[in-house]
Design brief:
Chain A: Keywords: Cell membrane, Membrane, Transmembrane, Transmembrane helix, Transport. The complex is a heterodimer of chains A (293) and B (291). With 293 residues, chain A is mainly alpha-helical. Chain A contains 13 helices and no strands. Chain A folds into two domains: 46 residues; 212 residues, Orthogonal Bundle (MetI-like fold), CATH 1.10.3720. Chain B is built from twelve helices and two strands; from the N terminus they run H-E-E-H-H-H-H-H-H-H-H-H-H-H. In chain B, helix 7 packs across helix 9 and helix 9 runs antiparallel to helix 12. Chain B is globular, with a radius of gyration of 24 Å. Classes of the chains: A mainly alpha (293), B mainly alpha (291).
Chain lengths: 293, 291
């Protein structure tokens, strides 16, 4: 019976693609669909394009399509201002938070979805309540905690803070995902003599792949983008993250738009790329029922 | 499955510890500070003063009311527009057309961009000397040297548009995910019954989306209420405190004037307001009552 473990039956086949409508020649589609889409694309892309133009255009020029392009601004921010180091810090924090949040959310989400235990409702309520806690307003007590724990100016400290604030929502999402994997599969594996742990790894975990991608990317993007904690708890320049570096670029180099734009490109490229890859999983995963909790 | 009851507790233990240390304890300590006079620069005056901070907040502090009013306006305008545009966008990219996957990736991408980076991008776009309005002026549209962030008349809409750019994709993603769970038979049945496109939207799509809409607007409202990154870096609360939200005011009290006691009272007020309106909203919208 090990076959059922190594190759779990596909329980929820992807819904068939909606049949292509015959109305493709319907002229009203241009007004309902194409025109608003193009307008929205312009709204989305013009700001990005504006940043790219500034980042690659030599100082003093005003061409809307810069040619030849220059990399002088990237040299300024990466080597001169230290964005190379900020990039590294942000990457460590992003990946660290991704790993910790995903593992803890998987554990807690599994507990919520598969067990009935005393205090479950209180726990769920507490998770929801945390969503109302304003991070910005918690800075003072958090600063005191971080100082006494020796976590100021430490990347570990920032990973912990980001994890604490992202975990509750990630856990709620993950419990929805786990609930969506039929428990019967796991029970069948356990009847066949698997331990619960083994059943989980062999049967449930493979089905959770889109969920892991969705929750993990949420965590990475959240940590990569976090500004307030990084600003308050890591004031030494060698611990700066990209958003903090950018905020200084906004203030100090207010006239050097080329450097600001190049710094922006450095900060944007990883998350936008990650996002472009995972957004499909994100939509799939969320529509698998997590939105309804 | 009540076997081995210690297992769930072991599994949620890391979450509980993190929540206790970084969420519950700070809230409790803010609650304690809010009843004290506590100014870092004048420690000899520190001590328990009961509800004096709250009295001062309610009766002697016009900036509290002003920032609260602005926060309310910000949340209502921002969440309302994000919902409407996000729903439209979700409906559009739910249709079948050539290049749909590409279009989705592009229109959703600002969601991944941080508040500070959003500010950076839009400062480049808005700046009076080399921004988009200068470019438009060169083409004969508008006046040269327009500074939308410096002019009290335009700073609010300019800030709203900036946050929309980043916020609409959030709604579009969540609503698109829910749109995809609507069974096609429902639409077909409605079509057979003679329902037009608008009718199908009102009778099939909207009721199905209700819980997703309630949940996403609530999460977003809380988030926009607490949003500091963007406003702080874009306008700094100015000009003349016009765009100061309650969290921004708190941060300024705490960080600039080191008035921890009063800042904590403001925090408790913000927390209480959020909790009150969230419960009210969930009750009114009958969340989760869908059969």
């Amino acid at each position: 019976m090990t076959q059922t473990l190594t190759r779990p039956a596909t329980v929820s086949p992807p819904p068939p693609a909606p049949p292509r409508r015959k109305k493709h020649r319907d002229p009203s589609r241009y007004f309902r669909l194409h025109l608003p889409l193009v307008l929205y694309l312009l709204f989305t892309l013009i700001p990005f394009y504006w940043m790219l133009v500034f980042a690659f255009r030599p100082t003093g020029e005003t061409a809307l399509v810069p040619w030849p392009i220059t990399f002088e601004h990237f040299d300024t921010v990466w080597n001169g201002i230290g964005f190379g180091l900020f990039f590294q810090n942000s990457l460590i924090i992003g990946v660290g938070t991704l790993v910790v949040v995903t593992v803890f959310a998987l554990m807690g989400g599994y507990a919520l979805a598969r067990f009935k235990f005393r205090g479950q409702r209180v726990f769920l309520l507490a998770l929801l309540c945390t969503q109302f806690i304003p991070g910005a307003m918690m800075l003072i007590p958090l600063f005191v905690i971080f100082k006494s724990a020796g976590l100021l100016n430490s990347l570990t400290g920032l990973i912990i803070a980001d994890t604490a604030f992202q975990l509750p929502l990630a856990l709620i999402l993950m419990s929805g995902f786990v609930r969506n994997v039929p428990v019967e599969l796991e029970e069948a594996a356990m009847v066949d003599g698997c331990s619960r742990l083994r059943a989980f790894f062999a049967v449930t975990l493979p089905q959770l792949r889109p969920a892991l991608v969705a929750v993990g990317s949420f965590a990475f993007i959240g940590a990569w983008n976090n500004f307030l904690f990084a600003l308050m708890f890591a004031s030494r320049q060698d611990k700066f993250t990209l958003p903090v570096g950018l905020s200084y670029a906004l203030g100090e180099f207010n006239t050097d738009f080329g450097a600001l734009a190049a710094g922006g490109v450095v900060a944007a490229v990883p998350v936008v790329l990650v996002f472009a890859v995972v957004q499909r999983f994100l939509v799939q995963g969320l529509s698998a029922g997590a939105v309804k909790g | 499955m009540r076997t081995r009851t210690w297992a769930p507790y072991a599994l949620i233990a890391p979450t509980l510890v993190l929540m206790a240390v970084f969420l519950v304890y700070p809230i409790a300590s803010v609650g304690w500070f809010s009843l004290r006079q506590h100014t870092v620069t004048q420690p000899w005056k520190n001590g328990f003063i009961g509800f004096e901070n709250f009295r001062r907040m309610l009766f002697d502090d016009p900036l509290f009311w002003q920032s609260l009013m602005f926060s309310a306006k910000w949340v209502v305008v921002e969440v309302g527009l994000q919902l409407v545009l996000g729903l439209c966008l979700a409906l559009i990219v739910n249709e079948t057309f050539v290049g749909r996957a590409m279009a989705r990736s592009l229109v959703f991408s600002p969601w991944a961009v941080s508040g500070v980076l959003t500010t950076g991008i839009w400062i480049l776009l808005y700046n009076p000397s080399t921004g988009i309005f200068q470019q438009l002026a060169q083409w004969g549209i508008g006046d040269p040297g327009t500074s939308v962030l410096g002019d009290p008349a335009t700073v609010f809409p300019a800030t709203v548009v900036t946050e929309l750019w980043r916020g609409v994709p959030f709604f579009a993603i969540l609503l698109l995910a829910d749109l995809q769970t609507i069974p096609n038979d429902l639409y077909e049945a409605a079509s057979v019954d003679g329902a037009g496109r608008w009718r199908r939207f009102i009778s099939v799509t909207l009721p199905h989306l209700r819980d997703a809409i309630v949940l996403s607007t609530l999460l977003r409202a809380v988030w926009e209420f607490n949003n500091v990154d963007l406003i702080y870096t874009l306008t700094g609360g100015g000009p003349a405190n016009q765009t100061t939200t309650l969290p921004l005011y708190v941060a300024r009290k705490a960080v600039d004037s080191h008035d921890f006691g009063y800042g904590s009272a403001l925090t408790m007020a913000g927390f209480a307001i959020l909790l009150f309106f969230s419960i009210l909203y969930l009750r009114l919208s009958k969340f989760g009552s869908r059969a």
